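Sample intake sheet
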Amino acid sequence: MARSGRFIVALAIVCLAALPSFSTLRPDWMTAGNVAERGWARGPVWYLMTHVEYAAYRRLTGEAERQRFIRRFWDLRDPLPQTP
């Protein structure tokens, strides 16, 4: 019985190792280099945003607008604004 259990575990490990990596299963928009296109507002920053900020971000249509919003968002929360 113990031998068949080890065989099943080894078979499971081999099967899992043969699966494609999670990065290959992601849609193209998630792997794009642009932060704003990858759902920035739905990431960890979600816990820092107010409802008003989230609604404002969702209304933005252009990439440049989103980048400006993200820059301003972090500038407002910067404890030392004199640093780069």
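Comment: Residues 2-76 form one domain. The first helix runs from residue 2 to 18.
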